[in-house]
Amino acid sequence: MVAYLDHAATTPIRPEARRAMLALMSEPGFGNPSGAHSVARAARRAVEDAREVVAAALGAEPSQVVFTGGGTESDNLAVAGRSPRGHILCSAVEHDAVLESVRAAGGTTVGVNPEGQVDLDDLKRALGAEPAPAAAPPTPAAPPGSARGSAPTPASLVSVMTANNETGVVQPLDRVIGITRRKAPAALVHTDAVQAVNWLDPAAATAGADLVSISAHKFGGPQGVGALVVRNAADLDVTVHGGGQEAGRRSGTHNVAGIAGLAAALAVVQEDREALVKRVGDLRDRLADGLLASVPGAVETGRREDKVAGICHLCIPGVESEALVFLLDQAGVCASAGSACASGATQVSHVLRAMGVPEELARGALRLSLGWTTTEEDVDAALEAVPAAVARLRSSAAAVPAVRAPSPARSAR
Q1: Which of 138, 154, 169, 403 is most buried by its number of CB atoms within 10 A?
Q2: 208: left (phi over 0), alpha (psi -120 to 50) or beta
Q3: Is the dihedral of CA 136, 142, 148, 153 positive or negative?
């Protein structure tokens, strides 16, 4: 039996989502919603019904929901499509879908505190560093880094995620929005809520944000479909050109079955969230407490009370994440070192680096993420496998003799 504890990477599809998708993979739902005949109209109705479900869940109007190919596209559209153009700020712990988009636009990152929450004073400094009067020539855009410099132009977008994909830490988004409205009233606020939908009411958690990104496969829907909510009359430039679907905001033939699956999964989550948070939160606490007690030196990342219920993130000294995840997989436990998009990388997580976690600890990062299918048996399997894998890795490391470094003259060759 496999204990699947990587729900933050992707969550098993819910039966309701599967049924909704299968119903639209046969006549008459297979049509192209852009057509005019009866089959196309049936597909269009399915898309619009799903749009209403998403809008209600996220506290938006149906006309404000833009269906996309997933969370990454939603994040990219929010950042690259911002209008008017101007300087961009994001937290230093954003998902790469935001961070790389901001980097490409010459934006600036705002630091976080050791618990992983955005440094609000740093954000104030960044937003308060207004450019010289309009008559002065513009300053070249600064590369991403500390926000303790001067922003070259007024901020046009501030992006801070709702909950972190690696640590599960929830950001003080309401305070971020309040600061942004006071310091840069013309700026849009975007939040990547991809990891939050299972655990937080997205309408309440993202209230006040202009742009909200979600992704179906994080809450029991299919992979490859997401949405961007565009509130408060926010304007977006087109980044995907073509047939003008989604009110001209995102061209491309609709993934009708995927969109229906997204809506069906979201509807279930909305109904079951309170019970899911309680059940999974209890399992997560038992898992975290058990590992902290049985793995010497293990450290829990961030404050547990600031995290969503489904993520247990530890840093374990004396091991390498990749080796630990490999041994856990051999033992039948699916886990990750952090973001699924970077799970094959050897460098220390940018999230942990931004939090100031020492490199020795950060190299032993382990994310065990729980979800709607997680059972007591899954937790039992992890509580048995993780200490055994850590002990094996530490034993192997201790058995390897130290290697003398080459002399400078020899290494220079």
Answers
A1: 169
A2: left
A3: positive
> Annotated catalytic residue: which of 90, 315, 334, 341?
341
User: pLDDT value at position 190?
Assistant: 97
pLDDT tens-place string over residues 253-278: 899 999 999 999 999 999 999 999 99
> Which H or E run includes 191?
strand 188-192
Rounded Cα distance, 315 and 389, in Å: 14
Phi-psi region of 254 (alpha: psi -120 to 50; beta: other; left: phi over 0): beta
Please compute the mean of the pLDDT values over residues 20-39 and round it to a whole number.
Answer: 86
In the residue annotation, 341 being an active-site residue is answered as yes
As its CATH architecture, domain 3-8+273-397 has: Alpha-Beta Complex (3.90)
pLDDT at 18 over 90: yes
User: What's the rounded mean pLDDT across residues 195-203?
Assistant: 98
Per the model's pLDDT, the better-predicted residue between 210 and 136 turns out to be 210
Q: What does each C-alpha distance from 362 to 22, 168, 186, 294 come to in angstroms?
A: 43, 16, 38, 19
Count Cα atoms within 13 angstroms, Cβ side, for 219.
35
Q: What share of the chain is helix, strand, coil (3-state, %, to 5)?
A: 40, 15, 45
Owner of token pair 């590992």: 291
CATH T-level assignment (fold) for domain 15-269: Aspartate Aminotransferase; domain 2 (3.40.640)
